[in-house]
Design brief:
Helix content is 8%, strand content 34%. The strands form four sheets. The protein has a five-stranded mixed beta barrel with strand order 1-2-3-7-6. Strands 4-5 form a two-stranded antiparallel ribbon. A two-stranded antiparallel ribbon has the order 8-9. It has 143 residues and is mainly β. The termini are far apart. It is elongated and about 90 Å long. It has one helix and eleven strands; from the N terminus they run H-E-E-E-E-E-E-E-E-E-E-E. It comes from Loktanella gaetbuli. It holds the Pfam family Phage_base_V. This is Phage baseplate assembly protein V.
Amino acid sequence: MTLAAAEADRRIANVLQVGTIVSVDPAGPSVAVNLGDITIPAAAVGMMRAGGLSLWWMPAIGEQVLIACPGGDMARAIVVCGIFAGNAPSDDAAVPLFELAGGEIHFNGTLIVSGDVIAGGISLQNHIHGGVTGGAATTEGPQ
C-alpha cells in the first residue's frame, strides 16, 4: 500500500468515531474526548439548533458520544450527539431535567425566567387580584 493510500484509509476511518467525554470546558464550548488510544483535547460541541432559537447543552463527563471529523481530521472534531449506553454519567442527576409527553413539558428543578411568564393569557408579572380585603382573607384568582 502506498503512503497516500494509507493516509486516505486513516482519514476515512477517522470520519466518525465513538468516544467518552473526559473533561468539559463550557467557555469553549468544547470537550476532551477519549477514543481509547488517543484523546482529542478540544472537540467542538454541536447544537441541535443554532438559529433564532438556540438549543444545546454540554455533554457530561463519562457520557459516550459520536464525533465527526471532517475530512478525517481529528483537529476539527465535532461532538454530534450522545449515545445511550445504559449507564448514567457520574455528574448527571438521577431524574431527567425535563420530559415531553402528550403536549406537556414536565420540568424537574428550578426554572429561572428573565422575562414574563404568561399562562392562559394571564401575566405572572402584571396580573391583578380582585376581592382583596385586609386581615386573614384570601384573594380571588388572578385576572
